[in-house]
């Protein structure tokens, strides 16, 4: 994963999709692998949530400015 400061929302979602496919397509029950993938997915979801929250705030400000 790229540094959070350089990663885009689209890249994070793409990486989440890759992790999901990896987990779905494995017949192995490797707890270390599963644990690391779930941890990574959790970090990516937190990043995406933060990005969406930031975007929501920016959009609300733009809409408020249009209503003035």
Features:
68 residues; mainly alpha; 2 helices; 78% helix
What does this structure look like?
This protein is an all-alpha fold. The chain has a domain of 37 residues. It contains 2 helices and no strands. It starts with 8 loop residues before the first helix and ends with a helix. The mean pLDDT is 89.
SSE topology:
Elements: H1 9-24, H2 31-67
Helix pairs in contact: 1-2
Please outline the major beta sheet. none
Count the beta strands.
0
Distance between the termini: 42 Å
Q: Helices and strands: which structural class? A: mainly alpha
Mean pLDDT: 89
Tally of contiguous helical segments: 2
Low-confidence stretches: none
User: What sequence of helices (H) and strands (E) makes up the elements?
Assistant: HH
Q: What portion of residues is helical?
A: over 70%
Radius of gyration: 16 Å
- Judging from the principal axes of the Cα atoms, what is the shape? rod-shaped
Strand content: under 5%
In short:
The protein contains two helices and no strands.
